[in-house]
Every structure is written in structure tokens, then in C-alpha cells.
Amino acid sequence: MRPSGRSLNQMRDVVIETGVTKHAEGSCLIRMGDTHVLCTASIEEKPPSFLRNTGLGWVTAEYGMLPRATNTRNRREAAAGKQSGRTQEIQRLIGRALRAGVDRSALGERQITVDCDVLQADGGTRCASITGGWVALRLAVNKLLKTGTIVSDPIIDHVAAVSCGIYGGQPVLDLDYAEDSTAGTDGNFILTGSRRLIEVQMSAEGATFSRGEMIELLDLAEAGSEALVAAQKAALA
Fold first, then answer.
1. Is 52 annotated as a binding residue?
2. So where does phosphate get bound (predicted)?
């Protein structure tokens, strides 16, 4: 039934390759099917101005798509002179999600910026960015611990994200573009490794959905996030 031939509860193949850039304190390339995102984490030894003298650190994110990440060329936002509303919304989402897995007092007064650059898009780019962004963040924090810059681990838990939706009248896990573009209901679920919810974004695109269908999608998302956390652990092993 699915264009890819996957079963309703089947994820795309997930591969996370770490250490893919020379200079960033943490980096990975995450591939979720044909969606590929480069994630890098950069440490600055000072917090944003609004956090000075608070003892708290900050994790933030930036997100962008390369011009030929999709089947037609998109103009660079830098050339247009401003970010789109979609880009701003996604990078705020990534930052919120990653901060939920961090003890900011243990991080100390410094900022880690996670950059997520979409090399190729086939649906679920924000979810791949969050999942890969956490790996890059984890690697950057490992360096702080190794050098003794911080003494306690500020990472509280894994953070992973997956899309679910209702396609062809059936709840499905991890939508690719062919499904996402025609799904009746589309949702993004962000969870911790202990299955605590961080954020849920759901909307009816072509048809409303019931409470029961929402629970079915949440069940799929929990299974999907478990698989993604396992992929994160394997990449960091």
C-alpha cells in the first residue's frame, strides 16, 4: 500500500555516521532513507547575553536546505536576504527539542549551536535534524567532559523525533515525501529515550482524525523513537 513498499509500522533505513567534519566539536551525517542531513555542534565559551551571570548554559539550532536538496532548485535564503517562516519555525523546534534533554546548569555559562543542513530531502527533515542534532550535541559535550571543562554530564536523556501520519486511511510510521505530500493527517513526535514526550505537532491536512487514531500514531511514534535511539547508541558506540 505504501509507495516505498514498507509495512505500516516500518521505518526507513537509518544510518548515522559520526565525525564527518574536521573542525566542529561534534558532527554526524544522518540518513533516513533518502533524507540526508549534516549536523554539526559548535561550542562557544560564553552564553547569550540574557543568560550572563545566571550559571546557565544554552543550546540553540540553525537549519537550512541546500538549493538542490529537492527536485527543483530553491534560492538560497541568504541571497533573498531573510529566512523563511518555515526555516525559523523548524530551527526553533530543533533548539527546544535539544534543550529538553540538557541540564543547563551542568552545562555552565556557554552556548552550543547545532547546525542542521539538509543535503537531500525526502520528507521528515526536521525529525532527522533533531535525531542527528542530538548525536552531534552528545559528541560536543563528550569533548567538554574529556578536557575537564565541565565535571558532570549535562545530557539528561536521548532526544529523537519521527513523523507519523494517516496515509490511504491507515496510520503509518516515518512518512517519506510521497506520503507526506498527500497524507490526510501529518504529525511530528519528539520523545526522550525514556519515552517522555517533548513536543507533538499534528494537523489534519485533508481529513480530520479521531482520538483513537491519534493514540495509534503515538504508539507508532514510540516504536519509531525507540529504533532511532538504538541507532544513536550504535553510532556513538
1. no
2. 86, 124-126
